[in-house]
Amino acid sequence: MDVLVCAGCGAELSVPVERVALPPEAHASWGHGPLPPLMEPGTYAVDPAPAPAPWRTWEDLGESAAAAAGVYAPVYPVPCGTRNRMVLAPGDMRGTRLVPERCESHCLGITAGAERNLVCLGCGLGVGSREDDCGLWQTVWYEPGAVVRRPLTVPAPAPPPPDRTPPLPTDDWDLRLAAAAGAALAGLLAASGGEALALPDGPVTELFGRELARLLPAGPPARRVGLAGPGLPGDGADLVLVPADRRTGAPWPPADDVVAVALPYGVWAHLALPETSPMPPSGRPPAGVLRDDYPLPDHAYGGFGPDHRTLRRTLARMPEVRRPWLRALYDRL
To answer: What is the residue-averaged pLDDT of the chain?
Structure first.
């Protein structure tokens, strides 16, 4: 566990928080209404990508400088801000004051401006920015030069045991699910070599099949996609979808000759594990009594597809996108 503190005066700017992997939906936005906090309570993440501002055009920056910023295909504009900003839920922030005149124009909430809109109550140093406008996650972004991490001796809480499939929304579209699928789709495309992939029947095909068929050429599949992870060996697949480590984001280690594409555990579990109920039935209900979970709710993937903006953003930040076939696919997106 860590406490985030002001680099100027040492004042505590957060409750004790645990560092976890940056969610794949961190830079996704959707709709006109408010979104919930990006981060779970008691957690924070570090974003290695440059902050959105200042911006440069792809043409002015040049391909070499853009690659140094972690962008390998044209995006408009190219973010060139500071790296390694720390993001946490607004409810975990402490010891700061919002400066409204430093916020950009907004609709239903606030957005970050050219100046940091959060200042330390202890010394007045600009430490970061808060955002919660419509279509944006509720976040606090702390700048690495203004906020530092102070390690605590308190151990981080144990992650919840994977004894059952975590719940997923049954709506037709969910931003967290779509962004995770968009990032994983980028990994599948990059590892495909530009040839068709064979998918296992069931949820994996429901989630990725239509997009892979649209983006990759038709023909005999050159590689087979499978599922691997705790209790699943991968069954000889060439590409495997695996759960990502909650704290580091690293993929579950596959066999040496297999390419792994990571998904957040909750999404992976719904592809790999059987559906479970938090209240297992026992016996038969009396005549005339219907269980409230029967018939089962609609499957979470009905009408659902990967988020294209996350797909394109992820591809642009993969060095593999410089391969001619993948660059041509990227340009089509």
So the answer is: 87
